Amino acid sequence: MKTEQEVTPLQSGSNEVSSLLSTEAVEKIKAKETAQIAVREERRQKKSAAEKLADVLRREELRELGKQRSHEETKEFNRLEARRRRAGKSPKDNALADVLNAQEFWNANRLLLPKKKSDEYLAQQERVFDILFWMSDGWREPQAPDFVSLGEGIADLENFVSEHGVISDDPSSYKHHTLQDFVPSWGVWAERDIESDPIWGYVEPFYKDAERFKALCCESPATEIYARYGIRTALPAFHLRKFLSRIEAHKNGVHRSESNEKCWLCQFERQNRSL
Ligand SMILES: [Zn+2]
Fold it and tell me: Considering 35, 70, 86, which residue would you say is the last residue of a domain?
């Protein structure tokens, strides 16, 4: 572990350099150092909060396993339980009550994910981002050597979906009744507490609602990965349906004006007219 002194040598040595620098410059350097220390401290605190939360999530996961725990898992569980008792917490305390948003929850869960898995998921997420980019911007450069036509792009996309499924986020196609019945339907994936919606009042974020969280994990493997770790290993269902229905509407000549704006083909045709 480096001490703050070692990583910011200028702070201890600033007396020696001050004769070469104006007072103003020295003040600036000092202010910058102070800000850097604050940023580092904040990062350290965030990391330790994520580590603590990861311990709690792991502990509760092991608790649920009950008698199915292996010898190693029992040792791990006992260690985490001892830590809980030392902190004076009851097993019924809701560890997630103070988690501000899904990102904090994901950061903690990612600490529990083996590096190999996480690399695999992140690499697949790059593919997802490529496809999403093609869906929104792929029409832009028909002259480019790597241009992917609508036909090729859709074939690509359909292959990807048949291999990896989708992330369930489309209110019209949830499989689990808990998600079908959840109101407001736009709030299924709420990423933080929504305190005072004009119609619904309080909407609980998905990671605090155990029943909804479990239901999301049942939808598909990619949905579970996204719910647990915030990594997209498949395309989001809602976005996909919107994209394909705009293409369909375009071919049938039944666009509404607001869907023209985002239609791949409309934009492609406009672009080619102006070339
Ligand atoms: Zn169109």
Answer: 86
- The pTM (predicted TM-score) of the whole model is 0.81
Q: What is the pLDDT of residues 25-46, one digit of tens each?
A: 888 989 999 999 999 999 888 8
Number of domains in the chain: 2
In a domain, 161, yes or no: yes
Instruction: Find the 246 Cα to ligand 1 centroid distance in Å.
Output: 6
Please indicate, yes or no, whether residues 119 and 80 belong to a single structural domain of this protein. Answer: no
Ligand 1 mean position, distance from CA 135 (Å): 13
R_g of the chain, CA atoms, integer Å = 25
In sequence order, what are the beta bridge partners of 203?
Answer: 194
- 131 domain-assigned: yes
Q: How far is the CA of 262 from the centre of ligand 1 (A)?
A: 8
In this predicted model, what pLDDT tens digit does every residue of 2-26 receive, in sequence order?
444 445 444 444 455 556 678 888 8
User: Any alpha helices (H) in 166-207, and if so which ranges?
Assistant: 177-181
> How close is the Cα of 253 to the center of ligand 1, in Å?
8
Cβ proximity of 224 and 216 under 8 Å: yes
**Is 131 in the same domain as 267?**
yes
- Per-residue pLDDT band for 115 (boundaries 50, 70, 90) equals very high
The answer to whether 216 and 207 have CB atoms below 8 angstroms apart is no
CA atoms of 138 and 132, how far apart (whole Å): 9
Ligand 1 geometric centre to CA of 255 (Å)? 6
- Classify residue 105: in a domain, yes or no: no
Query: Do 156 and 250 fall into the same domain?
Result: yes
